[in-house]
Each structure stands twice: as C-alpha cells, then as structure tokens.
Input
Amino acid sequence: MLRALLLAPPGAGKGTQGERLAQVYGVPHLATGDLLRHHVAEATALGREAKGYMDRGELVPDRLVVDMVSDRIAGAQQLAGFVLDGFPRTLTQARQSYEWGRAKGRTFHAVISLQVPEDELVRRLVERGRSSGRTDDNEETIRNRLAVYAEHTEPLLDFYRGREILLEVDGTGTVPEVTARIGGALLPLAFP
Ligand code: ADP
Output
C-alpha cells in the first residue's frame, strides 16, 4: 500500500492531486490543513491553539501537528497506506516522522514535489480565495505563506533527495495532466 507525501508550496495543487492519488491507489488522503481547519471549526483545544497561527499564515507548532498526524496514522484505526498533504512542513517534523516511521514500519515510499512558478501560485490562491472564502487566501497572508514555505519547508527537498525518495514533477497544466505525470513517476516504484 502506497505511503506518499506531497511536498509543494501553497497553491501548487497538493489538495487536488492528493485527493486523486488517494483514490487511484485506494488509500486515505490526509491533509493536515483540512484536519486543522476541522479542529478550528469544532473549537477543540487544538483548534483554539492553532487558529491564530493559521490566520497569520504561520506554521502551527511542531508538537501539535506531529501529535495530530501520528494519532491519525497509528491511533484507534491504524493506516498502512496514505497520501499525506501538508505534512511534514519543517525539518523537525520530517526527522520526527522518519524516526517514528522506522519504528513502526511506516516510512514513506515516495515524496512528490510539485513544481509551479511563483506568479502562477499567487494567481491560483487569489482565485481560490474568491471562490472558497478561505480566510488565509488573501494576498498578504499568501505572500507570508510562500515565504514560510521557502524558509521552513523547501529544505525538506534535500532531506528526501538524500534518502532517494524524491520525485520532482511539473505541476503546471491541467489537473489530469499533472495526475498522469505523478502516476508515471510512481510507476517504477515498488510498494507491496
Ligand atoms: P496551503 O498549502 O495552501 O498553505 P494548507 O491547508 O496545507 O494550505 O495549510 C493551511 C495552514 O495550516 C498553514 O498555513 C499552517 O498554518 C497550517 N498547517 C498545515 N499543515 C501544517 C504543518 N505540517 N505544520 C504546521 N502548520 C501546518
């Protein structure tokens, strides 16, 4: 069963492609942004703590996110496969999930990096903000999220490149075109 993660800046299509990949490979799609927004909507303790960070386009502290994700993967219902989107987003999260994955036999088979030019990202996010009403999709927060991505998340590309599981995929073009490219990149991989 596939254990993959999508690693890309906001607006690159992690959510859309994550949904489609999960369906193709018959595994759940876990988007940390969606899980967090759910906690905010339900006003759980985690949601109340996370909300301010999210509204400012900052990262939610590592310990909160790591616990939330490991609970979801190894909690009451254990998941052997998944497509993760939005996690890990810092080197600390990446190192902790690698240690944790090794201990549980749940390391990732593939990390898919979606490549999209910055002006296209901003255009997509502004457009999404108009239609979805996501409060963090306004121009100022978008710029901040892109800067946070460059500073905290981009270094993970080298982390996974070093482990030889990084797949770099062109994220421009239509949704089905991108899905087909990802499928092509996953094809040579073995995952039982
Ligand atoms: P996007 O990729 O468009 O920024 P997400 O839905 O993935 O959207 O994330 C929305 C917000 O949720 C982020 O700006 C951040 O505040 C928080 N978040 C999501 N995943 C993580 C994570 N792994 N670590 C810290 N914060 C996170």
